[in-house]
Specification:
With 572 residues, the chain is an alpha/beta fold. The chain is globular, with a radius of gyration of 27 Å. It has 22 helices and 25 strands. α7 runs parallel beside α8 and α20 packs parallel to α21.
Length: 572
């Protein structure tokens, strides 16, 4: 819950009426997802919130289970006066939402701009309770029908601009009906996880809603490159597009998509057939798009190669703010150096599970000689230090890179942009499961004064030296992930936490060398901690966890499954 000054208010059973009495006219946003507020309390509170612009009651099934919510005209009249200016209504994940309760509530909100029904049980074509097509008779008291949703869209077509039907069973025909509602001009549509949609349904959508600015089609598994082409040709003002986890999408059409000059955000995570070549071609062909794209998600694109990413970083250097390359297994140190050199404006970088990344990539000391693989097999380049000889192919047993010398570190300092530390604007960095990284790079490179979220989980080679360095050099951290790091001990925590007073979320699960001393250090230095994970830490006791929970005022959750020797024995 927030007041008009942006101050967050936490809902408790006794709080709503007090908030309404004291702050009522100042509250412009009320969020109660999954809370325990009763129908009586909510109906007493809402009439006092006369400036409310956003209402979030996701998952409040208890309000709608009986079907009596807002059934009295007196209550509807009071709520209607208070919510006459409401612009955003979130009804996601309400299992018992019906035509009757939906009509009563939306009848009190005549000028909605945003409506979310994600995860709701909407009968788009068939009413299972009556055994007939949905919405052919009077309003249902058991489910929400497409006919009723269409009626709302028609009535509020002049104001409604954003609609979320993610995780519903919407069919191609139902999407056509929504898209063709008279005078409805949507700017934002979310259809995440709507698995029945087809390429044809998207073509119809694009035809009837050409003004869309944001479109989320992630997880619509039946869509193919035909959808990409339809979007590229029909939505010329599009700014945000997500096609993540649409596994049938290939390279075809991606180049054309990047000809949309207004595009600033593109999600292609999990599109296994994308190698980046078409993205490269599209960016080269469109200088306008080159200047605009700010967010690019390519996680899980296992075919993405260094060569394509090098071109992408050069083309997007002036605009890109967020880059997700999680699980891009083919990328190596060359890609990391390209990112550090060209993407100086980057704020979010995710490299989790890029297992070929080593210390040299972060430090910018990649050797000029390397084995390159092309269509005709491996090609060996000559080394500068040994002219006339060829570098042998890398053997499988050569897993750990040789140590970086002091001379190389000094040369690195003279090479502007080669080291990852050149990305001064980073606020989030994910290096989890890059198992070849060690203290040699973490202590030298992870120096980001504005960094807020850092993941170093599953790095078996890092020790307390890395944690101590992170504490001193990244004092703005609010979230730190260190799970499965066996080299982290109480000593490292003691050196780091005095500098991490803003820390709110910390994961130390499966760190076997962490003991109760760490919890006492957190009590002393990290008073803002909200969540802590010490699961599977065999040297942590339940007594220390209980003490921690009693001492930290903002602590919401402590994950502590299988802590201590006694609990670990349960897994045998």
């Amino acid at each position: 819950m927030e007041d008009s000054d942006g101050e967050e208010l936490t809902e408790t059973p006794a709080l709503p009426l007090e908030v309404g009495a004291v702050l009522g006219p100042r509250v412009d946003s009320l969020a109660l997802p999954g809370s325990s507020i009763t129908e009586a309390s909510l109906l007493a509170l809402l009439p006092r919130l006369t400036s409310l612009r956003r209402l979030d009651i996701r998952g409040l099934d208890s309000l709608f289970m009986s079907g009596a919510f807002l059934s009295r005209e007196e209550h509807r009249r009071q709520v209607r006066v208070a919510l006459s200016g409401l612009e955003e209504l979130d009804l996601s994940d309400l299992r018992y939402l019906s035509d009757l309760t939906f009509n009563r509530l939306t009848g009190c909100t005549p000028r909605l701009r945003r409506l979310s029904l994600a995860g709701c049980h909407i009968a788009f074509e068939f009413d299972p309770y009556r055994g007939r097509p949905a919405g052919t008779v009077a309003d249902s008291s058991a489910l929400l029908s497409l006919r009723n949703l269409r009626r709302l869209l028609t009535e509020q077509s002049s104001s409604l601009k954003a609609l979320d039907l993610s995780r519903t069973s919407i069919t191609p025909e139902s999407l056509r009906i929504v898209a063709q509602v008279q005078d409805l001009v949507l700017e934002e549509l979310h259809l995440q996880g709507c698995k029945e949609l087809t390429d044809y349904s998207v073509e119809v959508l694009v035809k009837h809603q050409p003004g869309l600015l944001k479109l989320d089609l992630s997880g619509c598994t039946e869509l193919s490159s035909r959808t990409v082409q339809a979007v590229a040709r029909g939505l010329r003002s599009l700014t945000h597009l997500s096609l993540s986890r649409d596994s049938k999408i290939t390279e075809k059409g991606l180049a054309e998509l990047l000809s949309v000059s207004s595009l600033v955000s593109l999600g292609l995570s999990g599109c296994l057939h994308s190698s980046g070549a078409e993205l490269e071609e599209g960016l080269k062909a469109s200088t306008a798009a080159t200047a605009q794209l700010e967010l690019l998600h390519l996680s899980g694109c296992t075919n993405l190669q260094d060569r394509a990413l090098l071109s992408l970083t050069q083309l997007l250097g002036g605009s890109l703010r967020e880059l997700d390359l999680t699980l891009c297994l083919s990328l190596t140190d060359l890609s990391v150096c390209a990112i550090a050199t060209h993407l100086q404006k980057l704020e979010v970088l995710r490299l989790g599970w890029c297992k070929e990344v080593t210390d040299r990539g972060l430090l910018g000391t990649v050797q000029e000689s390397r084995c390159e693989t092309g269509d005709g097999g491996p090609r060996f380049t000559r080394t500068f230090g040994n002219m006339g000889f060829f570098e042998p192919p890398r053997m499988p047993f050569e897993e750990r890179p040789r140590p970086v010398s002091r001379d190389e570190l000094q040369r690195l300092e003279r090479r502007h942009g080669a080291s990852l530390s050149a990305l001064r604007r980073l606020t989030e960095l994910d290096l989890s499961a890059c198992s070849k990284l060690s203290d040699g790079s973490i202590t030298q490179v992870v120096h980001f004064p504005d960094l807020q979220r850092l993941s170093l989980s599953m790095l078996p080679e890092i020790t307390d030296a890395s944690l101590a360095s992170v504490g001193r050099r990244c004092r703005s951290l609010t979230g730190l992930q260190l799970s499965h790091c066996p080299g982290i001990t109480d000593r490292g925590v003691a050196q780091a936490v005095p500098y991490l007073r803003r820390l709110q979320h910390l994961s130390l699960s499966c760190c076997d060398n962490i003991t109760d001393r760490t919890l006492h250090l957190l009590m002393q230095h990290c008073r803002r901690l909200k969540t802590l994970d010490v699961s599977m830490c065999k040297n942590i006791s339940v007594t220390a966890v209980d003490l921690l929970q009693s001492q930290l005022p903002f602590l919401e959750n402590v994950h502590h499954k299988f802590i201590g020797v006694a609990d670990l024995s349960l897994t045998d």
